[in-house]
Amino acid sequence: MQARVKHYSHEFSIVHQPLIGAWSTPGRRVYAGAGWRNSFFLNTHQLYRNSNPHPVMLSELELNVGLVHQLGIFGKTLFWEKGGSFTPLAYAARNTFSYPLSDAQIRANNQGFYNFLRSGNVYGPGGYRSATLHTGLMRILENGNALRMDYHWGGHSLADVNPVQWARHQLWLSILFNF
Amino acid sequence: MPQVPGKSALFILLTSLISFSCEKAFLDDRASDDPVANFDYLWKTLDEKYVYFHYKEIDWDEIYREFRPQIDHQTHEKELFRVMADMLFRFRDGHVNLYAPFETSRNFLWYMEHPANFNYNNIRRYYLGEEARHTGPLANAIIDSVGYVYYQSFGHDIREPDIDYLISDFAGLKGIVIDVRSNGGGSSRNSRILASRFADRKRLVAKHLYKRGPAHDDFFDPVDQYLEPAGPLQFTGPVVVLMNRYSFSASNDFILKMQSLPHVTLMGDHSGGGGGIPLDNELPNGWLFRFSGTKTLAPDGFNVEHGIAPDVRINLHGSAEALGRDNIIDSAIKLISEKAETAANSGESPLPGKTTQIQARDAFFQRP
Questions:
Q1: pLDDT above 90 covers what percent of chain B?
Q2: Contact status, residue A17 vs residue A64, Cβ threshold 8 Å
């Protein structure tokens, strides 16, 4: 019997990382700031009949830091960035302990998404632990646009009545436009 | 020479992009085949999420001490299945199953220890007969001015047009018999669709309890469940629901809803129960299992896990059965006829709600 879990995720984040001039040098720049990350995950087990779906909504306030080194490889100028984040405060909504609906959805006899969103709780570092690390290379093109390739890792733990831990590896290929 | 983007704009642009991506969940299909790990996972999950420990007076710790020594790290998977299935049988719960690739465990004692009170062959031959109509999953016929409806499984979906047609067609009759004997359940959505066509007004019909945490008695406050009239017309004349010990799960749910309606009589044997919603889970070795994950109470607090008593208890007589008769159906038709006659003699409208129903039917057939 083969487990069949379908996973869908959607993420939206805004990060503000100003240059920290005091810590920077001509070959190394340091950025630090904060961000607002919103994630939605939906896991569905295809062999379950009454226990689908398993949604998770996270809204996180995160602190970020990044270092950018300027490199010269084969005559090309590249920027190597590494950084990470830590979440001190988060709002998380999930299903109840065993039933595939949130408490607010059950109360309202309604599976509406808004009822799901408002059923969450606020968690501090003791309840929700989240850290991310990333590293990547960026090449700025002559027209001002840039190409990036990044590796991201994130580890997350929600210590609720129904605890859950997960980690993600991601490879990003990005095109940055210089407007 | 290109400059390191000294402003934050580039980073804001980078990270504020709404990103869609392809992902694969790295879930091991067979995370562990260790028999002990699988046994412990099954026991612990049920310990935290099964809902009837107190109601059924089950000492789950004692059951662990009894069954856990029967397996070790070398136990063969078929022996592991047998031990797990034997342990699950202690629930005597038709909603508790273990699904392995080679076998499925299921407890049928909740109805096999009781008379069947059902003979489909007689119904098919002598009550539905050749003139029977099949309106969606609802086999039906008119017998002595009484509508008879046989619903084999709540797993067969009822469409709104099906029930619209049936109710409108039965509107002028003395009453309706709905036969859910040996209907082992299916979807409670079908239960609601069908029952709502017999509701006269919004009524409290049940209370659901959901687990809040792992303790055996840790539940949220009960959540009231209401039944409201639905669709273009409803039948509010005399209705008899036929039930037996195999009327389980969604059938039990339907009977519970109908029990709250004043014009409905429950007839036959006790229903089979199965008041909880079965939830699914998966063992580390990939086997699936399900269990009762919620509790259902009647409005007065009665736990319907072990079934609902009929208003009129009657068993199928072997002598009648041998003659091709179903004395339970006959009794239901007789009861409806008597109610209609009594109403006529008392000067009341002979068929409660008849005028409304006929008007509603006319309106229904005149719809574009």
A1: 79
A2: yes
